[in-house]
Amino acid sequence: MLGALAPSAPAQPEVEIEDPALAGLRPSFAEILGARRRLSGLLPPTPLVRHPGLSARVGVDCLVKLENTQPVGAFKVRGGLNLLLTSSPEQRARGYVTATRGNHGQSLAYACARFGSRCALVVPRGNDPAKNRAMRELGAELLVTGVDFDAAWEAARGLAEQRGATLVHPGATQALVAGVGTWALELLEQSPGPLDAVFVPVGVGSCVAGTAIALRARSPHTQVIGVQSAAAPAMTLAWRGRSDAGHPPAPTLADGLAVGRVVAETMAVMRALVDDMVLVDEDALARAIRWYAETLGQLAEGAGAAALAGAHQLASRFRGGRVAVLLSGGNVDPRRLLTVLTGEDRERG
């Protein structure tokens, strides 16, 4: 891995910029700053790296934030820990229930184990077996039901009511969004200079919402661009104004982004602050996974590679500038990874 950029004095001014666009949005920027303070003693900064070969492939100077190096292999641990840190003793005693495709569940399980709370996770049938195993190994109770995330969520809602546990939505829970937004503050402190754009994957929208609030406050010139799988475009279609009714997801390498319902809370932030949304196909996701392995020697799951695929798709817009992408997670089924790396799914032509 080349080009690790050591944290130094912040390259961006550490001042809060008053912006009317942030008024009334949740979480507030102050809540993200609070999450940063709470997490500082628990999670060391993740590396920000640059590789000339990767930038050449993408077509623009590209920095990569390695959130796949977090304790659970994904950025969402920031949100899980912030949730437990801001919960009351009574809430921790009641335990937590959520639906997940993997990384959110691992995040909550990790945080619950740290605080001695019960954690029940509902996953859809056919979920990534490696992620299921990882959640169980972190001490979570795993229940399998439903055909997709949305069906699993409805089951989680019923289970939480039955048990009197705290129900945690991965996008609508403000403490989660504030926690994951802290990665963007860290990014600005590590960047060697201004960033023209930051690309982030979008599932339920927690990451792009937290990122957009943090960047609008600290680096308002930086564009925030969300990336979704073309097989699961619900949030993109809603952001473009077509429909809030949702869109059933199809099978995709980016299973962590495969949601069909629009999350109103994160969509409100996206409509106010996100500059663009990009859909990438399966070939682009597979190519991005290979590029990470070939250049940085990093494992990326499909959702984790989405931001890089989006940056490549829009590279001509930022040529001559500098962008950053979030490698959000590396929790991938080894069999699926082998298929991608050996090129068995290589794009036609």
Automatic annotation (TrEMBL):
<dbReference type="InterPro" id="IPR050147">
    <property type="entry name" value="Ser/Thr_Dehydratase"/>
</dbReference>
<dbReference type="Pfam" id="PF00291">
    <property type="entry name" value="PALP"/>
</dbReference>
<keyword id="KW-0663">Pyridoxal phosphate</keyword>
<keyword id="KW-0456">Lyase</keyword>
<dbReference type="GO" id="GO:0003941">
    <property type="term" value="F:L-serine ammonia-lyase activity"/>
</dbReference>
<dbReference type="GO" id="GO:0006565">
    <property type="term" value="P:L-serine catabolic process"/>
</dbReference>
<dbReference type="InterPro" id="IPR001926">
    <property type="entry name" value="TrpB-like_PALP"/>
</dbReference>
<dbReference type="GO" id="GO:0004794">
    <property type="term" value="F:threonine deaminase activity"/>
</dbReference>
<dbReference type="GO" id="GO:0006567">
    <property type="term" value="P:L-threonine catabolic process"/>
</dbReference>
<dbReference type="GO" id="GO:0009097">
    <property type="term" value="P:isoleucine biosynthetic process"/>
</dbReference>
<dbReference type="InterPro" id="IPR036052">
    <property type="entry name" value="TrpB-like_PALP_sf"/>
</dbReference>
<protein>
    <submittedName>
        <fullName>Pyridoxal-5'-phosphate-dependent enzyme, beta subunit</fullName>
    </submittedName>
</protein>
<feature type="domain" description="Tryptophan synthase beta chain-like PALP">
    <location>
        <begin position="43"/>
        <end position="329"/>
    </location>
</feature>
